[in-house]
Amino acid sequence: MKITASRIRPLALTLGAAALLIPLTGCSVIDAIGRSSQDAWRLSYEVTTDGSASATLTDVSYLDADGRLEDAKTKSVGTVETTPVAGGTASKWKAESIVVVGKQTRVSATPPAGVRATCRVLLDDTQEIATATSEPGEPVTCEATAPEFPK
What we know:
21% helix, four-stranded antiparallel β-sheet, 1 helix, alpha+beta, elongated
């Protein structure tokens, strides 16, 4: 079989493209491995309202990541109902997520008119890294950067 330029050209183009794409694939794999080994906290967002009755929070949103490999994105949940807390002094809404060390956290909500809201960002359900309280009927926002793990 005679080898002609018309047969060599497609083979050369295919080999050249493969040579360019293999290193790019390798870099993305290395990046994914690095991101999967980053330290991450279990994160809780809480918004409580004063009073024992449930309340309707509006404009509720928080930063959420599906996993260590994903960048956090604002998740808008719109309107939610708080649930009365045992003891009858407050009513609460809560969401769970994860956050990689050094990344931003944020939750915000608006309580109904005449109701004060407090937001908190907790690591592992115990370590509070942000808190804020609104004036009655005004929006409340908590944000913080996730700290390093204790050494």
